[in-house]
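Notes from hallway chat w/ T.B., transcribed later so I don't forget. T.B. wanted the structure written out for a chain they're using in a teaching module, and asked if we could keep both sequence and structure tokens in one place. Agreed to drop them here.
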Amino acid sequence: MKFTKYFEEMRRRPDRAEIKMEWIRNVIENPVRETIQEDGRIRRWAPLDEMQGRYLRVILLADGETVHNAFFDRSFRQ
């Protein structure tokens, strides 16, 4: 996986440090929902059994490969 500098900086935050790379890969490969932002970035969501079904949102750059952000989305409803 490729990452933006922003993502690498955000990974240092305590609330983001717990997010495992395997979870990010799972969301990228098996999203339950995907939307495209106006700027071309791609949002993908998937629930994580390991986190009691909480949804992880991963934002990719328009290339569909580079991870720009990843966080637990408290407001996501399927």
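Follow-up for T.B.: The radius of gyration is 12 Å. Might be a good example for the class.
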